[in-house]
Amino acid sequence: MNAETPLPPAERLARIIDDVCKAAAARAPRGFLAIPILMLLWARLKRMSLRITRLAARAAAGTLRTPPRAAPRQPLSRRPPATPPRRLPRRTGWLCQPVPAACAYASQLQHLLNEPDMRALLDAAPGIDRLLRPFCRMLGVARPKLPPRSNQRPSQRPTRRPAAPRAAAPAAQRSAGVPARDLPHRRPRPARAPPLRYRE
After folding, report:
1. 116 touches 90 (CB < 8 A)
2. How many whole angstroms separate alpha carbon 126 and alpha carbon 57?
3. Span 50-99, pLDDT tens digits
4. Contacts of 138 (CB under 8 A, 6+ apart)
5. Around 118, how many Cα atoms within 13 Å sit in the side-chain half-sphere?
6. Three-point CA angle 8, 141, 19, nearest 5°
């Protein structure tokens, strides 16, 4: 009997995200999870799963490029909205309390993140690691520490050469006890001819 071929890490990750969405939807009608929170959670996780799938496909095809770091933008002065946008809780592991099944999926996610194939995917596509931050936080999963990237682009700024030390002024050199023969000689100025005088 042939062993089943393991699924790619991106597909396994998408299944975990989908299972978390289904488990949260099953608890909402019982009052354990508010409907607005469920709708926001569902939209966030589905959008995250779609973006992760696209990044993994581009990384496998070799068409993924790491964009250069943009300069930090200055915050614009905007008026606060009349109704503040609804946000998900930011407490670590907050989803495991209203959805107990999320603890099992958190264990699966932790096991997947520690596999070499998943680490290689996170190294090839750093955007996936950034997308997983809120998902790992809501499940209480520690993200793996990846080694620093060695294929980063060198800085475009030219390296400045150290400025050559300026020669001290002759007066300062004399006060320091430097012999006169060691002082830099100045080029003598050309002699000017005396002004012509006309006789009356």
Report:
1. no
2. 13
3. 999 999 999 888 887 765 545 556 665 666 555 555 788 889 999 999 99
4. 88, 89, 93, 94, 95, 102
5. 22
6. 55
Question: Any idea which residue has 């998408």 for tokens?
Answer: 14
Cβ atoms of 21 and 45 within 8 Å: the answer is yes
Residue type, 143: R
Yes or no: say if 92 and 137 are a contact pair by the CB < 8 Å rule: yes
What is the distance between the alpha carbons of residues 65 and 73, in angstroms, rounded to a whole number? 22
Distance CA 44, CA 112 (A): 21
Phi-psi region of 140 (alpha: psi -120 to 50; beta: other; left: phi over 0): left
Q: Taking a C-beta distance cutoff of 8 angstroms, is the pair 105, 19 a contact?
A: yes
Cβ atoms of 49 and 160 within 8 Å: the answer is no
Give the number of other Cβ atoms within 10 Å of residue 5's Cβ: 6
Query: Which tokens go with 36?
Result: 């607005």
**Torsion, CA 41, CA 42, CA 45, CA 51, rounded to 10:** -130
Residue with tokens 């007066």: 171
Alpha helix locations (H) across the chain? 9-27, 35-61, 102-113, 116-124, 126-139, 170-175
Q: Is the pTM value of this prediction over 0.85?
A: no
Q: Hey, how many other C-beta atoms are within 10 angstroms of the C-beta on 10?
A: 22
Condensed to tens digits (0 to 9), the pLDDT of residues 113-128 reads 999 999 999 999 989 9
